[in-house]
Amino acid sequence: MEKDCIFCNIVAGKTETEFLYQDDMLVVFRDINPHAPVHLLIVPKKHIRSINDLTEADQPILSEMLMVAKDMAAEHGIAQSGYRLFINVERGGGQVIFHLHLHLIGGFR
Ligand SMILES: [Zn+2]
């Protein structure tokens, strides 16, 4: 855990953030600045700065992120209407919080 990382603090339960899901590898919560009717963040508990910092050992985390994204889409009723999954990498890719996270957005009409 990185002391000054907001997502590490959220993962550690040090904020009021409501978890929509959590398991031993990751947590899911709502983006505080939503860009869509459904905008969730799927966040590994382990502090990984960005996709650039992944190692072979992180493969189970990545796979879990996608599986949970699929389940969250179904749970929020957007599996059939469709959704988008994306990961921003570093500043040039639009990353704002430097703790790896997967965006799940959908619910547009
Ligand atoms: Zn972190």
Radius of gyration: 13 Å
Q: Which cofactor or ligand species appear?
A: zinc ion
Question: What is the number of strand segments?
Answer: 5
Roughly how much helix do the residues carry, as a percent range? Answer: 10-25%
Give the biggest beta sheet.
Answer: 5 strands, antiparallel
Nearest-integer average pLDDT: 96
Would you give an account of this structure?
There is one protein chain. This protein is of the alpha+beta class and 109 residues long. Helix content is 21%, strand content 21%. A five-stranded antiparallel β-sheet has the order 1-2-3-5-4, covered by helices on one side. A hairpin with a 7-residue loop joins strand 2 and strand 3 (38-44). The longest helix is centred in the middle third of the chain and has 17 residues, at 59-75. The radius of gyration is 13 Å and the shape is globular. The N and C termini lie far apart (39 Å). The model has no long low-confidence stretch (mean pLDDT 96). The protein binds zinc ion.
